[in-house]
Write a structure and sequence with these properties.
With 220 residues, this protein is of the alpha/beta class. Helices cover 44% and strands 17% of the residues. The protein has 8 helices and 7 strands; from the N terminus they run βαβαβαβαβαβααβα. It has a 7-stranded mixed β-sheet, sandwiched between helices.
């Protein structure tokens, strides 16, 4: 399976540089989508010789991922691996996810921090549980960590679904759209690293966007 790692990045130069080096050392192609950063993100990736897609202004994680997806589909990759740029995901978890995607035939394989006992702030853990229960109910598949940004998505899934969201709700939209198109979704336990993690999530605004997405998928 020929896969491309797509990393949306916003002001993440410090954590992104070591992450990209580790991924490249594993022989995987990397595409960074610089989402209007004002730090050294674009410069650092250019100096590192990493494929870079840049948005002139910050458009949101969903918009950045959609740009990366469009590139990967056009370039003919078999699958896209998505990772966060803040160091929360470890490259060591990439091989098990890619192996599961190749062996299971699932359209999407999602990292699962909940079953692995990975440390997570209490408020985020409970919020994630609620959102994952809703997404699992709508997809009629068990997805214990629907908000995990580390996942493998087959090219055929991306070619078949239409994604519209521009912010953090894209994590749920991809799963809902894939399930509606008839794809199976698997999960693989991973670890999560929170010592350097700084979230850009805004609970109120992003919570409202998530609920709007759920309502849209509930309507016939």
């Amino acid at each position: 399976m020929r896969a491309c790692v797509v990393i949306p990045a916003y002001n993440a130069a410090d954590t992104l540089e070591p992450l990209v080096r580790q991924i490249k050392a594993m022989g995987l192609d990397v595409v960074v989508v610089n989402d209007g950063s004002t730090d050294r993100t674009a410069q650092a990736m250019t100096e590192a010789g990493t494929m870079l897609i840049s948005h002139l202004a910050n458009e949101g994680k969903g918009a950045a991922l959609r740009s990366g997806f469009a590139f990967a589909v056009a370039a003919g990759y078999d699958a896209v691996v998505t990772m966060d740029s803040d160091g929360q995901h470890g490259p060591a978890d990439l091989p098990p996810l890619l192996d599961a995607a190749a062996q299971s035939g699932a359209g999407i394989v999602v990292g699962d921090r909940m079953s692995s006992g990975a440390p997570m702030p209490l408020a985020r853990r409970w919020t994630n549980r609620v959102m994952s229960c809703l997404v699992s109910a709508l997809t009629r598949q068990r997805i214990p960590d629907s908000q995990c940004g580390l996942r493998v998505i087959r090219r055929d899934v991306l070619a078949a679904v239409r994604l519209r969201t521009r912010r953090f709700e894209i994590e749920s939209e991809v799963l809902l759209a894939a399930a509606r198109a008839g794809w199976a979704i698997d999960s693989v336990p991973i670890r999560a690293i929170y010592d350097r993690h700084r979230s850009h999530i805004r609970p109120l605004q992003d919570g409202v966007r998530f609920l709007r997405l759920i309502v849209r998928y509930l309507l016939p």
